[in-house]
Amino acid sequence: MKKMYALSLKPFCHTAIKAAFVLLWVMLLGITSYAQRTDGTIKGIVTDENNAPLPGVTVSVKGTNRGTTTNANGAYTLTVNGPDEVLLFSLMGSVPKEAKAEDKKVINVTLVTDTKQLKDVVVIGYGTASKKDVTVSITTIKSEEFNQGVLTSPAELLQGKVAGLNVTKSGDPNQAPAVVLRGPSTIRTTGGAMEPFYVIDGVPGASIDLLAPADIESIDVLKDAAATAIYGARASNGVIMVTTKRAKPGQTRLNYSAYGAMEEVSKEIDMLSADELRAYLAKNGQTLIPVLNDDGSSTDWQALTKRKGYSMNHNISFGGATANTDYGGSVNYLKNNGVLKNSSLERTTVRGFLTQRFFNNRLKLGVTVTNSHTKGNDIVQPQVLSNRLFYLPTVSPFNKDGSYKEYYARTGSGTLNPLSLIDNNFIKTDDNKTLINGLVQVDIIKGLKYTLSASTQRDENNYNSYYNRFSGLAVNFNGLATRKSYLNTSTVLESYFNYDREFGQHTLRLLGGYTYQQDRSNDGFGITTQNFSNDNLTYNNLYLSNPSNTSQIAFDNNPISTLRLISYYARVQYSYADKYLFQASLRNDGSSAFGVNNRWGYFPAISAGWNISNEEFMKNIRAISFLKLRVGYGASGNSAGFNAFSSLLVYGSSASPKFLYNGNVTNSIGPVRNDNPDLKWESTATTNIGLDFGILKDRINGSVDYYIKKTSDLIYDQYPVSTTQYFVPTYTANVGSIKNSGIELVINAVPVRTKSFTWKTSVNLAHNKNTIEKLSNDKFTINYIQTAQLGGKGQSGNYSQIIKPGEALGTFNLWHYVGKNENGVSSYENADGKVISTQPLTTDARVAGNAQPSLIYGWTNTFYYKSFDLNFLVRGVTGNKILNATLAGLNNPVDSKIQNIPTFTLQESYKDINAYLISDRFLESGSYLRMDNVTLGYTFKPHTQSVKSIRFYVSGNNLFVITKYRGVDPEINIGGVTPGIDNNNFYPKTRTYIVGVSAAF
Questions:
Q1: Strands 138-142 and 216-222: what pairing?
Q2: How far apart are CA 641 and CA 652, in angstroms?
Q3: Which of 488, 498, 655, 809 has the fewest Cβ atoms within 10 angstroms?
Q4: Where on the phi/psi map is residue 886: left (φ > 0), alpha (ψ -120 to 50), or beta?
């Protein structure tokens, strides 16, 4: 044992002695070298090509963490440790420059513009690319082009700015806008199935509500499948890439922006005043029942339930960037009071990030934390919006004792006091979203980079409502309370390699990666109960309720589920001589939501481009500065709105789940969904042909795109099946297909550019045709799907829209109005072609147009004169129809004794017992032209180092609209499967006036 130990120890000691001598020699050499070094301070000035000083230039000692930045005069001071050290000068948009220290005391340098860096850069999946090199359809909107206004969602920044993107929103502060890109591609609405897929700073699926508009640097909209297929099964509705603001290298920044706004209702329906209603009834030999329907009052219910909405927004952000560190943070506060009483939104957004580079920038570590806390106050809109129109103006709001006047025995449509509905019922929401994202990026060898990104998003959603003992919605309930609390979490891991190299005239970019995502949904509960001793605690302490039976306690049927997605993806981009461009990608997605036979799907894409302007034969055509042809084809999918049980046999409770069994209350449990092992995602294939152009050194530039987008394997969950073969009479299956085709045109121009005045203009036009191609196959058959059950007097079982092959989504199916007979009664044509003056049958309905616009357009103009800027946006749509079911329901002369009527009805005969029926008489043109925004600003730039600029501005939104539509506003929601319907559900559109300031330090 000792011998073995000695044998093993001897070589170790010998090696240790040699290592000690080597270490001693290195130390002595280091001391000698150090003694020979001469420390020194170097000063200098950095200028541009015009000899103007450049502030914010990073000056660092190459290979170290030592550095500084130039001041407002372009001056810097830096200490070096020896003559062999090298100074590196860098600034975004300029070519970096190096200078050896030697024995110099002063080093002045001039940085020249880097034309490659100044090329327009667009964000694509898992990377960026020069705009001139992309072969797909992408639109980029910079922060200076964003819309101004009281914006509750960043999606509104793009309204009217992107060809083919339709963003619609009412004046409701608590309602998210509907966003549709290149037409609807599905007949599902749950879980954002019709919405584009959002990616924030590379984090896929992040909530767009996490960001304040002031924190966004740019938004890239990926339209065709050749661009979106890299995101596979979630990208068939397009992808919106959001890039947040960060300081440029060498900069430190502090920004503050704020505005105050006043909103008012832009238009209301002209309802009869009390005197006008009394006169109308007297003219027709009718009277209101005294006291009950006419107490001598004259009440304007629309005026009593609305208000001027005052809003404000504050945003403060800071950041900085050195050669090795990038940091920043922001806080945003928004308070938006709606124009209907007791409706408002309050949101606080906090964001912070830190990125640090190590080992000569070979390793980058970063973390970003974002939190958005939104509190909403809302009213019971379906009842308030209806009753503020229908309720009799001849009745006062209050009794003599100050209580709300109600008459529950009154029949008709307007039976509840609108003010009582607002004050005796309330809804409060409290949503808290947090996103944490960590990043590791390693430059392995020249051109090869590895990125690991891990993120977790946590959404806490709380809903609370209370109808008190005076509520007309809960008569004799002694208080009705609802509480819901759900937690949704999403964890995403992205791991991918990028390889970028140039070989002479060849440029090659490769991407390969892996994604793992887990979504856990509906972790929580919802319960409704009633019968409280008093209203003091509202929805708090539900145990104080005293329901008399089990039917008075209702639990939500929202089962918890965990969904997993695993993906592999690859992309290759190649260009030759900046003329010939090629891109191909493939993504393989696996999802636990779908059947065991179809868990995995492939989403390929290929595209090519030809920079014609770089060809020799174009050199002499000086008028054309840029010309590129693009062709692409790809497939993407839609898996939004599914949970882990979508393809499985599911057991659950029926509509009346509780029953008595042997004296005990028991839940009824049985099959509620059939299994489908073949269920898979919807797939959208897009062919896109585009032409990008620039004329007169790009003073005029733009693009034109033609596309065909076809979605197959449409999912519908109500296919009828036999209960002899299946547990449940309906089945969820992939059967149908839907097609969108269209053309988009974008033109940007600078008509005037002088030393003190510039005019920029941009117009975008988009035409889209939507068609349902099929709904059936050999196994599952359905001829059509009826939708839009709007109700109304005697019409509770009627449908107003139909989904059928050959027609667009949102096609109206209505009775055909032919005028009035000799007695002034509305008449219709039945299915046999006969004119009748009685209410038609449901089989008498016919196709009568659709809600899809044939043209969407936006026109932006910006004028700069010295320190002033003026911007305005005009936008609109044409070719679509709106069903004005609100006006139809109000147009009821016979019931004017119990409910109010609009001035429109004064032209009707009192004998017209059919005037209120929903027919194509009330199908109106939805075309409009809106002056959406006008902003006038003045920018003050003081000659100080601490203040870069201060801008003051005034802005107006929705200043006027040109339309023939007779309703409140023609901008009706076109999302969902029932687009284009106005049915007493439209929160009033607002006109907004804003005063704001933004300062950069």
A1: antiparallel
A2: 19
A3: 655
A4: alpha
CA distance 690 to 958: 33
C-alpha dist (Å) from residue 674 to 409, 595, 646, 648, 670: 45, 12, 9, 7, 11
Number of H helices, E strands in the chain: 7, 53
Helix (H, G, I), strand (E, B) or coil at 390: helix
Three-state DSSP state, 438: strand
DSSP structure class, residue 425: E
Under DSSP, is residue 711 helix (H, G, I), strand (E, B) or coil? strand
- By CB neighbour count within 10 A (0-12 exposed, 13-18 middle, 19+ buried), where does 622 fall? exposed
Return d(Cα 901, Cα 284) in angstroms, integer: 14
Nearest to 201 by CA among 210, 193, 192: 210
Return the amino acid letter for 145: E
Strand 881-884 versus strand 981-982 pairing type: parallel
Residues 6+ positions from 651 with CB-CB distance below 8 Å: 669, 670, 671, 672
For 98, other C-beta atoms within 10 Å of its C-beta total 11
| Mean local confidence (pLDDT), 528-533 | 94
Which residues, listed in sequence order, are joined to residue 449 by a DSSP beta bridge? Answer: 443, 498
Task: Evaluate whether 577 touches 614 at the Cβ level (below 8 Å).
Answer: yes
* Mean pLDDT of the region 786-799: 92
* 813 in Cβ contact with 819 (< 8 Å): no
Rounded CA Rg of the chain: 33
| Best CA proximity match to 418, nearest among 389, 439, 456, 444 | 389
Task: Kindly write down the DSSP assignment for every residue of 293-342, as one continuous string.
Answer: TBSS----HHHHHB-PEEEEEEEEEEEEE-SSEEEEEEEEEEEEE-SBTT
Residue 117, both tokens: 């860096």
| 142-156, 736-750, 844-858, 868-882: range with lowest mean pLDDT | 142-156
Q: What is the pTM of this model?
A: 0.87
Contacts of 275 (CB under 8 A, 6+ apart): 298
> For residues 707 and 181, is the Cβ–Cβ distance under 8 A?
no
Dist. CA 320–CA 354, nearest whole Å: 10
Which one, of 460, 516, 521, lies nearest residue 492 by Cα?
516
| Domains within the chain, CATH numbers bracketed | 40-110 (2.60.40.1120), 121-255 (2.170.130.10)
Mean pLDDT in residue range 762-766: 97
End-to-end CA distance of the chain: 75
Strand partners, 583: 573, 607
How many Cβ atoms from other residues are within 10 Å of residue 479's Cβ? 25
* 639 alpha-carbon distance from chain centroid: 18
Structure tokens at 56: 């914010």
The single residue listed with the structure tokens 């060898």 is: 445
Residues found in the chain: 1001
Q: For position 589, what pLDDT does the model report?
A: 94
Cα 307 to Cα 310, 338, 380, 387, 690: the distances in Å are: 9, 8, 17, 17, 48
Dmax over CA atoms of the chain, in Å, equals: 128
Q: Are 775 and 784 spatial neighbours (Cβ–Cβ below 8 Å)?
A: yes
| Amino acid identity, position 460 | E
Q: Which two tokens stand for residue 78?
A: 């830096």
Segment 158-167, tens digit of pLDDT: 999 999 999 9
Closest CA to 47 of 100, 143, 2, 111: 111
Is 566 in contact with 518 (CB distance < 8 Å)? Answer: no
Quick one: which of 251, 407, 412 has its CA closest to 328? 251
Cβ atoms 869, 863 nearer than 8 A? yes
Calpha distance 71→1000 (Å, rounded): 16
Residue 735's alpha-carbon distances to 182, 634, 718, 731, 748, in angstroms, are 22, 21, 12, 11, 42
